[in-house]
Amino acid sequence: MNFQLKTSNYVAERLKQLHASTNLTPNILARLAIALSLKQEGIPDIPRSESNGRDFNRNTLTGEHDYLYRALMAQHANREVSDEEFFPGLFNAHLERGIRLLSGEYQHAGNYDKFILNLLHQSM
Predict the structure, then answer these.
(1) Fewer C-beta neighbours within 10 Å, C or N terminus of the chain?
(2) Collapsing DSSP states into helix, strand and coil, what is residue 56?
(3) How far apart are CA 86 and CA 93, in angstroms?
(4) Could you give the CA distance from residue 69 to residue 85 in angstroms, rounded to a whole number?
(5) pLDDT at position 50, please?
(6) Shortest CA distance to 52 belongs to which of 99, 100, 8, 97?
(7) Burial label, 92 (beta-carbon count in 10 A; 0-12, 13-18, 19+)
(8) What are phi and psi of 76, to 5 degrees?
(9) What pLDDT, in 10s, does the model give residues 107-121?
(10) What pLDDT, in 10s, does the model give residues 60-88?
(11) Which residues pair with 56 in a beta bridge?
(12) Among candidate residues 62, 89, 90, the one with its CA nearest the CA of residue 75
């Protein structure tokens, strides 16, 4: 069982930028990114770890809802997902795709208030 995830450089930079712009912590931003990715069709490609990426502990990202995240990804994939496949691989793949979507949402919104309102409207 793996408890460490290393993001790509791109994800690390976007998390840093979004944190500075929104004041939301990187783990909250990562969870929002995962939610956006799970709304998309298809399973994203699993990215390669990079030396300058950001390290995350599994518990920091999934916390007490670890089983829920795994179940959501299994439902999205429409098949059983092993723990080894789920974290860090599949989780990181959804994080990579989701952070691109989240970053685009923030750029489109232009400010924190509109960003949050747009995310709330998408969830309905």
Answers:
(1) C
(2) strand
(3) 10
(4) 13
(5) 72
(6) 8
(7) buried
(8) -60, -40
(9) 999 999 999 999 998
(10) 999 999 999 999 999 999 999 999 999 99
(11) 5
(12) 90
